[in-house]
Amino acid sequence: MEPKHFRARPLDRHADWTRWLTDDERTFGHSGLYRFYDANRRLLYVGISRHMEVRWSAHRTAAKWWPLARFVAVSFFPVGCGVWPDLAEKASIAHEDPQFNSNHKNPPRSTALRLHPYVPPPGFGD
Predict the structure, then answer these.
(1) What is the DSSP-derived secondary structure letter of residue 39?
(2) C-alpha span between 10 and 111 (Å, rounded)
(3) Chain Cα centroid distance, residue 125
(4) Is the CB of residue 77 less than 8 Å from the CB of residue 83?
(5) Which residues neighbour 66 within 8 Å (Cβ) at sequence distance 6 or greater?
(6) Is 13 exposed, middle or buried (0-12, 13-18, 19+ CB in 10 A)?
(7) Strand partners, 124
(8) Burial level of 37, CB count in 10 A (0-12/13-18/19+)?
(9) pLDDT per position as a tens digit, 55-104
């Protein structure tokens, strides 16, 4: 199995949380890595969750950056694909420097060496 990456797409922050994942994304489940971007396509936040929509609902309630979010990109890492989602999250944060992540930004060298393979963001769909 290979990881599946979806390009960044517009996010309707006000939609019912059950509609945040697209039908195509839902075919891969609800567990994965996500990246939120602002209107200028600057990376705001990277996270992982076993239940993305539930986690995003918590972000909508409490995250300072949520009102800025305009785009989202999601990636899925099936068992056996060779990429652990938690390491993909740490690597993405270390390499991409999202504005609102505070953990994993400057990992110790011993940790940074293990943050492979780095999975670059999928880009935008336009």
Answers:
(1) T
(2) 33
(3) 16
(4) yes
(5) 13, 59, 60
(6) middle
(7) 8
(8) buried
(9) 999 999 999 999 999 999 999 988 777 777 888 888 888 888 899 998 76
